[in-house]
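Dear support,

I submitted the protein below through the web form. The confirmation email said the job was done, but the results page showed an empty box. After a refresh the structure appeared. I'm attaching both so you can tell me whether what I see now is the final result or a partial one.
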Amino acid sequence: MEERSYKIMGGAGALNLAFGVLIMVVGIAGGVLLLISGAKLLAGRNKILF
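What the results page shows now:
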């Protein structure tokens, strides 16, 4: 169960970062918010296993 959550959070974080870069071209404010949320997801997934 924890491994599945780890993979889902990793995918969601990577997707948020990718969309963040795309949105950054269109709108700076939206891109910054998506980058922050994606980075927090990627950083927080390590805490699940420990």
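Response: this is the final, complete result; the empty box was a page-load delay. The chain is about 90% helix and 0% strand.
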